[in-house]
Amino acid sequence: MSIDFTTVIDYVGTFAFAISGIRLASAKRFDWFGAYVVGAATAIGGGTIRDIMLGYSPFWMYQPSYLVVTGLALLFVICFGRYVIRLNNTFFIFDAIGLGLFTVVGIEKSLDASFPMWVAIIMGMVTGAVGGVIRDIFINEVPLIFRKDIYALACIVGGFLYYLCETVGTGHIATQLITAASVILCRLVAVKYHISLPVLKGNEDCQQQ
Amino acid sequence: MSIDFTTVIDYVGTFAFAISGIRLASAKRFDWFGAYVVGAATAIGGGTIRDIMLGYSPFWMYQPSYLVVTGLALLFVICFGRYVIRLNNTFFIFDAIGLGLFTVVGIEKSLDASFPMWVAIIMGMVTGAVGGVIRDIFINEVPLIFRKDIYALACIVGGFLYYLCETVGTGHIATQLITAASVILCRLVAVKYHISLPVLKGNEDCQQQ
Amino acid sequence: MSIDFTTVIDYVGTFAFAISGIRLASAKRFDWFGAYVVGAATAIGGGTIRDIMLGYSPFWMYQPSYLVVTGLALLFVICFGRYVIRLNNTFFIFDAIGLGLFTVVGIEKSLDASFPMWVAIIMGMVTGAVGGVIRDIFINEVPLIFRKDIYALACIVGGFLYYLCETVGTGHIATQLITAASVILCRLVAVKYHISLPVLKGNEDCQQQ
Known about the structure:
Three copies of one chain form a homotrimer.
Chain A: H1 5-27, H2 32-54, H3 65-84, H4 88-112, H5 117-138, H6 152-168, H7 172-192
Helix pairs in contact in A: 1-2, 1-3, 1-4, 2-3, 2-5, 4-5, 4-6, 4-7, 5-6, 6-7
């Protein structure tokens, strides 16, 4: 394992995603094991679903470091739990950075598996956003990204920019940077200016059927 | 892509299933993105789980039209939301037709993958009924098909008739039609005459353990 | 299918796991079909997720007996529902035995698929514990194993002992027995003496974000 810049960012994103899961688990009074599982699901759940859809075994089964980073995140919350709340903004930035990188990873792994660009864009979003959906199902809440904020859509925007960059022929590194940066920027702007998608109306009295 | 009769029915079913998910999402005040995801999960979730169990990548990754149809369903609800409620019966028919066709598709794909008939019957049911289960998990409700109506069981009935037809040697088209028709009929009869399976009793004070 | 001792234990575990799911389903007033699905998910859900992650089709698609045993469990609850509650302790023992055996099965299938020991230990836990998580998601409750008791951790302990036995070179049968016994023992001791993992504290006012 070479420790290059991408690897560092990857672990930062994993750590931030895991913290997000572990904090919500603690609010539900999960025990340490439950908190670890929810943290891991948040951090690696999206990539797991992506890999299974692409026809691979999940990436973390070939590389224990992701589960180790999740363990460190648990240790961090156990030791510094009361301070973690104050670090909200820090973790928000980490989370956005992770989202941007996860999107790039998802896109490129799908293209490597010979799927077309539109599948790769979806898989970039799956990699970034599905972990949070699994987290919310585990804590028995309606998935947050279905109701609030621009989150998964930021991954889609990044995916389109990836396609655009590839089409006009920017270099590979530039394409990656532009994609990740656009995802991060979308998140920051959406949260700062409270930009949300419209809520779907008109069926308030509709029930399960 | 040849636009034959089966393809048309397939899209009608996908549209009806997607509408069912999007309507429930709107009742939970999901935003447009959340509504789209719940619609897509309802429409293609069953086939996705089937394909993964059979060892394939999900079918919609090879054919963008299913996601396009889901997008049209979302557009339809956004534009005509207030009228959609009045169309309950229309959508119920579409949903039943979709269920019948999805069952046939699931059975045949499983047989093509060399699984025995009993697996194919289960996969017919998975294709038809699991999308609704994922939908209900996403909107944080107990899956409806576990408590009410003959739904998944209609797929099982259709599966047995498929087996019977193959055994007595009706033609392939006839087998498909009889299977789909029997599923649709089961649904119509069950809903019209309020036929349900018995509720399991006797453990009311049982708790999670 | 040879009916040897392992097979018998396997079916006993499947039966006990299925009963656990069916009982909870009955408390939620599921119908017979819903109860069957929740029972099956509890019994074979863990192995299904394990097989998909390892790159196989789920084991029960090659061997109908698991679904038959689940059917017998449903029949048992339908016929003897009122007595099932009194058999709590019996089912607890069966469940623990099943957990021990499922752990061994999960470990060995992962090693056969050429994954390293740490993945096998995780897959032993997945095989034993994930069925209960799916069960709790289906009945719309927070998964019990995230909050209470030593359960998944017992599988991990068993996994480490498997590794230890393999390293020191005990025979294969001895390794299996020690692993299963340690899982069962952990469960019995944890429940008898109310041993739990600590609850994660410090973020009570944390919300979904």
